[in-house]
UniProtKB/TrEMBL annotation:
It comes from the Bacteria. InterPro entries: AB_hydrolase_fold, TEII, Thioesterase. Residues 20-240 form the Thioesterase domain. It comes from Pseudoalteromonas prydzensis. This is Thioesterase. Belongs to the thioesterase family.
Length: 256
């Protein structure tokens, strides 16, 4: 089966690649969130952005609003593509999906990522210290996207009422997934975890990002970058991708 025909995956098949990097988007995001990343990573890394239901060519499908259900579907949908060394990168909601998917793969006895790269998300065991965003009235919800998640959705889109009406159900479902997430204690993962965040993050404290160290028995590292919740779009994208490239090269070498 050609990887390019998978509904779950964006990116391009690279038969010469030594490793795959699966990238999970933030709430409301799709494969375009990782546009241009492949060109900034080592050429033997195959970038595979995840395409979730409810967006792009899957626009007619129902979105996930529960993390465990999503993880089970992802484990089945990606099983064919775990035939070479791989890693997971997830930002915000995507970090939660990457984490729960890794635990689901462990339950199934399937191949595991060489490393888990977490971005812009408090550790899963950290309780949500705020009200649910996905139930806010439209105007307040859009204001929340504008303030707490600046840089994720352009101001031009936020001000376009008809377009936001089309996007809102998907974004609300994604926020429901993260808002209502309930952490279930399990044994820590055996793969290393790298946690990344923006220095001007408004959603959580640095200590809540650092708490990801509790989810692995292997190495843990945390690094902060200039910017807010969407620091990875700008101003720190190149710096982040250079760091990710170095991490992947290190673990690929250790895997040989």
């Amino acid at each position: 089966m050609s990887l390019e025909k998978s509904l779950w995956l964006g990116g391009t098949d690279n038969p010469q690649a030594k490793m795959r990097l699966f990238c999970f988007p933030a709430a409301g995001g799709g494969t375009l969130a990782f546009r241009g990343w492949a060109e900034q990573l080592p050429e033997h890394i195959e970038l595979r952005p995840i395409r979730l239901p409810g967006r792009e060519m899957r626009i007619g499908e129902s979105c996930f609003d529960e993390a465990i259900t999503a993880a089970r579907a992802l484990a089945s949908g990606l099983q064919t593509y775990l035939d070479k060394p791989f890693a997971f990168f997830g930002h915000s909601m995507g970090a939660l999906l990457a984490f729960e998917l890794t635990r689901e793969l462990r339950r199934r006895g399937d191949p595991m990522p060489l490393t888990l790269l977490i971005s812009g998300r408090r550790a899963p065991q950290s309780p949500l210290p705020r009200e649910y965003f996905h139930t806010l009235p439209d105007e307040q919800f859009i204001d929340t996207l504008r303030t707490n998640y600046a840089g994720g959705t352009s101001e031009a889109v936020l001000q376009e009422a008809q377009l936001m009406a089309l996007l809102m159900p998907t974004i609300r479902s994604d926020f429901a997934l993260t808002d209502t997430y309930t952490y279930a204690p399990e044994a820590p993962l055996s793969c290393p975890i790298y946690a990344f965040g923006g220095e001007d993050e408004r959603e959580f404290e640095e200590a809540e990002l650092d708490a990801w160290r509790q989810e692995t028995t292997s190495n843990f590292s945390m690094r902060m970058f200039s910017g807010g919740h969407f620091y990875l779009n700008q101003p720190s994208q190149s710096e982040l991708l250079h760091c990710i490239g170095d991490v992947l090269e290190t673990h690929l070498e250790l895997h040989r």
